[in-house]
Amino acid sequence: MNGAQGRRDVWSWWHLLFVIQFVAVLWPPFYNRIEPLWLGLPFFYWYQMLWVIVSAVITAIVYFATRE
Amino acid sequence: MQDVNWTALTVFVLLFGFITWLGFAAARWRKGDLDLLHEWGLGGRRFGTVVTWFLVGGDLYTAYTFIAVPALAFGAGAVAFFAVPYTIVIYPFLFLVFPRLWRVCHKRGYITAGDFVRGRFGNRWLALAVTITGIVATMPYIALQLVGIQVVVGALGISGTGLAADLPLIIAFLVLAAFTYSSGLRAPASIAIVKDILIYVTAFAAIIVIPIELGGFGKIFAAVPAKKILLAVPGPHTTGAYGAYATLALGSALALFLYPHSMTGILSASSGKAIRRNAAMLPGYSFMLGLLALFGFFAIAAGVDKLPEFAGGFKQFGNNFAVPALLLHSFPAWFVGIAFAAIGIGALVPAAIMSIAAANLYTRNIHREFINKNPTDKQEAQMAKWVSLIVKFGALVFILFVPTQYAIQLQLLGGIWVIQTLPAVMFGVFTRWFNSWALLLGWAGGTFAGTAMAVAAHLTPAYPLAVGGYTFPGYTAFYTLVLNLVIAIVLTPVFNMMNARRVPLDETLAADYQA
Q1: How far does the CA of residue B21 sit from the closest CA of chain A (Å)?
Q2: Which residue, among B115, B127, B99, has the nearest Cα to B38 in the 3D structure?
Q3: Quick one: which of B63, B66, B104, B81 has its CA closest to B351?
Q4: For residues A57 and B395, what is the distance between their CA atoms, to the nearest angstrom?
């Protein structure tokens, strides 16, 4: 309940890591193509699936870095 | 229609029987006094990280999603994959906003977004706007869950005319209503664990078995028409499909946690920490949703819509029949029973939580605020139980007597409406800067413009915004949220000047938001 701890969950520089995933998945020109294929899967699909995993890892990093 | 698939039906009924028992038994799980609203309607805020993961996962990734997203891939192609960026960008919001909201709700005994807005801004009319928006947006969503049940029941080969045709749905509804009434949020929480395991088993089995049967992803995508594989590259003077794709993902993400059922799921967690951990763990469901979206392409490659045994199903349910047909085509009957049970049970979990959330809203923010200001705890809980029944009954009547297309269109409008509560709820968690009347007018402006734009776009999600010779097709909810914010920001200083002496009380304290 002390103020210093509370402020830390309002803002931390670690939160800027979240910006990466917004840029990576909300800009379709990055990934709207077929090549390179992976296991026969077009880039469009495996790129976005990969980002599900990367974004979870980013969130975990932010969680551990800002843990009270 | 094909014949009744007895093996699949038997497995389906057995699993349904099991979760019915579980739903009633859940009343004794982490036992609490179910005559208190926060016990019935929030499970006593006792769910730790793991149960919250199952509950919120089962709540947000609904049966309808599992039917509709692959159906969209099947019919329209790449655009359906917006569900993946959508469910990537929601989690930073969950991580940053909701632990704070959870803490203030916990400290002040709030159980709905309406409670929070009422306490934070001291404006009952703004709270009423948030409440009504939440209830109205939830109703068609419940109806769509029942559509999910209808599709799998149809795929099991059960058909009939008149009342007999609707009997399975009515039975499922009665089961749902009874265990929600008796066990409250504990029922969907316990059932979600079973349902999610079934869904994961189905998804991972299918992602391995079906591509092998069809000769690999290379062959599958070779069978998909080229224009369905990627988004159309925008022409000159427009952001085309790119802008629509990105704004659909972002707008849907912003709207999702404002839905009452999301709020109920999150507020039932036992701590802010459990919520933050879930922001890193819930993408497990996003991954599965991406796999399921690919099922739409599998269905194209398998050519299920051209097989005579599925003609009746496609005629009745349209593209929503693609996934059930694919499962019937690819798996032995006993496994189809498991998969269909996963979808059917998957409809009951969110439907239960949605009806509880709507009941909490009505009880707290309409009945208690405007009708009976001093109910006893028991009266309050009893009222919520009755309202949850009324809400579900309304959804059932809707789905039995109104064309499914209307439920889908209303659900689309619901997303546009519910996002208009974002400034009051999400910004309200961080700041009291906004004037509550400015927020109310922003809400009204966004809701009105959003409805008009959606109607102008023939009830499709993307509105072709034209500015100086350029066209920006984008998600209406996203555009109208911007309008809403502009109104709220411009009018806040104006209202503050008009009644500078009478700023309503903020009953929350800075410390309430902190760990």
Answers
A1: 35
A2: B115
A3: B63
A4: 39
ipTM: 0.90
Tokens of B430: 């961080």
Contact pairs from chain A to chain B, CB under 8 Å? 121
| CB distance B238 to B36 below 8 Å | no
B436, two tokens:
């509550």
Q: Which residue of A has its CA nearest to B293?
A: A45
Cβ under 8 Å to A: B residues 221-240: 221, 229-231, 233
Show the domains of chain B with their CATH numbers: 6-402 (1.20.1730.10)
Domain extent listing, chain A: 3-65
Helices and strands (DSSP H and E) totals, chain A:
3, 0
Whether residue A66 contacts residue A10, with contact meaning beta carbons closer than 8 Å, is answered with no
Q: 3-state class of B238 per DSSP? A: strand
Query: Helices B49-60 & B272-281, crossing angle to 10 degrees?
Result: 60
Kindly list the distances between the CA atom of residue B312 and the CA atoms of A31, B9, B241, in Å, as whole numbers in the listed order: 38, 18, 33
A68 and A9 in contact (C-beta within 8 Å)?
yes
For chain B, 515 residues long, give each residue's pLDDT as a single digit of tens.
457 888 999 999 999 999 999 999 988 888 888 899 999 999 999 999 999 999 999 888 888 888 899 999 999 999 999 999 999 999 999 999 999 999 999 999 999 999 999 999 999 999 999 999 999 999 988 888 888 888 888 898 887 666 777 888 888 889 999 999 999 999 999 999 999 999 999 999 999 999 999 999 999 999 999 999 999 999 889 999 999 999 999 999 999 999 999 999 999 999 999 999 999 999 999 999 999 999 999 999 999 999 998 998 898 899 999 999 999 999 999 999 999 999 999 899 999 999 999 999 999 999 999 998 889 999 999 999 999 999 999 888 888 888 888 888 888 899 999 999 999 999 999 999 999 999 999 999 999 999 999 999 998 888 999 998 899 999 999 999 999 999 999 999 999 888 766 667 888 888 888 87
